[in-house]
Amino acid sequence: MPPLPVISGHDAVRAFSRAGWVVKRQRGSHVIMVKPGNKITLSIPQHKELDRGTLRSLISDSGLTVEEFVRLLD
Q1: Which pTM does this prediction carry?
Q2: Strand (E) positions, the chain?
Q3: Could you say which of 2.60.40.1570, 3.30.920.30, 3.40.50.11710, 3.40.50.720 is the CATH number of the domain covering 9-73?
Q4: Looking at residue 74, what is its pLDDT?
Q5: CA separation for the pair 43, 31 (Å, rounded)
C-alpha cells in the first residue's frame, strides 16, 4: 500500500471529482460532495493540509482504496 500523501482539501475535491463525485454545496469551510446512486456524502474540509485520519476516512467512505485515490491525484 502506498503511503497516504499530505494534500490540501482543494486537491482532495479534485481527486474525488475525477472518481465521479460532484460538489453539491459548500457550507463554511467544508465542501459537500455526492455521487449519483450513492447514499454517502463526503464532507471535505478546505484546509491547507488534511489530517491523515480524515483523508483515510474520506477515502474509505467513498469506496476507493488508497492506491486508487493516489492514482486520481496525478
Answers
A1: 0.93
A2: 22-27, 30-34, 41-45
A3: 3.30.920.30
A4: 82
A5: 6
